[in-house]
Specification:
The chain is mainly β and about 50 residues long. It has strands at about 5-10, 35-40, 45-49. Strands 1-2-3 form a three-stranded antiparallel beta sheet, with no helix packed on it.
């Protein structure tokens, strides 16, 4: 098994609108695209999920 860490999280938001985070209420405006970038601890590889 390859050890990894979470390097970044990407969330797409609508253009020309403010992003409303999930914790701020029911009417959030985050897009459906979400990606987590895993980074290999002992190497240089990355894996977007």
């Amino acid at each position: 098994m390859i050890e990894v860490t979470v390097d970044d999280i990407a969330i797409r938001v609508p253009r020309n609108e403010d992003a409303k985070w999930l914790a701020s209420g029911k009417e959030y405006k985050l897009g459906f695209f979400r990606a987590i970038l895993l980074k290999e601890i002992a190497g240089t590889r990355n894996l977007p999920i």
